[in-house]
Amino acid sequence: MIGVFDVSSTTVVVLGERGLRSFVVALFILGATIPFAYAILRLNQVTKWTALDAVLRFPSVNGATEALQFTLFEALASALLTIVIGLPVAWCLSRYRWRRVRIVRAFLAVPFVTPAIVAAMGFLSLIRDGGLLSKIGIDLRLETGIVGTFAELSGWNHPGHFFALILAHAWFNLSLMIRFIEPTLSTLDPAWEEQLSVLPSGKSKMKRLRTLWVPILGPAVLCAGALSFLFSFTSFALVKWLTPKNNTLESLMAEAGSSAGIAGYRVDSSELIYSVALIQFFILLLTLAITGSLQKRYTRRLSLLSEQGVREHHGPPTYKAKFVVGLGLVFTALPFLSTLTSSFQIRAVSERGVQTEWTLEGWKKAWTGDLSTMGVNEAMLNSVIYAFATLLIALPLGWILASTIHKLDKRGWKKSSRCLDLFCMLPLAISALMVGLGVLLGGLRWYPQMFNWFFLPVYPHVLLTVPFVVRVMLPAYATLDPRYTEQCQLLNMSPVRTWYHGTLMFLRGPAVVAGSLTLAFSLGEFGASWLLVRSGSWDTLSIVIDQLMGRPMFDPSIYPTAMAASTMLMLLTFGLFFLAERFRESSDRSGF
Amino acid sequence: MKKKCVLDVIELGKRFADVKVFERLSFNVKDGEIVALLGPSGCGKSTLLRMIAGLETIEDGEIVRSKEGRQSIGYVFQKPILYPHLDVEGNVALGLESKMSRKERKQIIQDELRLVGLGGFSSRKVEKLSGGEAQRVAVVRALLNQPSLLLLDEPFSALDIASRRKIAQDTRVILHSKNIAAIHVTHDPEEAETIADRVLLWSEITHSNE
Question: Which CATH topology does A365-585 take?
Answer without folding.
Answer: MetI-like fold (1.10.3720)
